[in-house]
Design goal:
This protein has about 100 residues and is mainly alpha-helical. It has one domain: Butyryl-Coa Dehydrogenase, subunit A, domain 1. The protein has four helices and no strands. Helix 1 runs parallel beside helix 4.
Length: about 100
């Protein structure tokens, strides 16, 4: 049995790793200094900006079905994303509520 990652899984892993390295790790000092000040760990406007970047990357609602506006990435991709997110202490999630797409 071959447990190698597919090309798509590798791409997702690398994309999330770059997001963590470029967007989240630089915020770690700020998160530590403002611990408890913001519910999301960072200033709300900045958090919203991170959410928008995640949406632009296609990583919003990672387990939400596509018909409700999510990415529907599945268990393996979710695990890969969780491993990459473990590289930072910044509390960010590729969550998002599901919503119907207008037809």
């Amino acid at each position: 049995m071959d447990f190698s990652l597919t090309d798509e899984q590798k791409m997702v892993q690398q994309t999330v790793r770059r997001f963590v390295e470029r967007e989240l790790i630089p915020l770690e000092k700020e998160v530590l200094q403002s611990e408890g000040k913001y519910p999301t760990g960072v200033e709300p406007g900045l958090y919203r900006s991170l959410q928008m970047k995640a949406k632009e990357m296609g990583f919003w609602g990672i387990n939400t079905p596509e018909e409700y506006g999510g990415a529907n990435l599945g268990a393996v991709m979710t695990a890969l994303i969780a491993m990459e997110m473990g590289r930072t202490l910044v509390p960010f999630s590729f969550g998002g509520g599901s919503r119907r797409k207008s037809t």
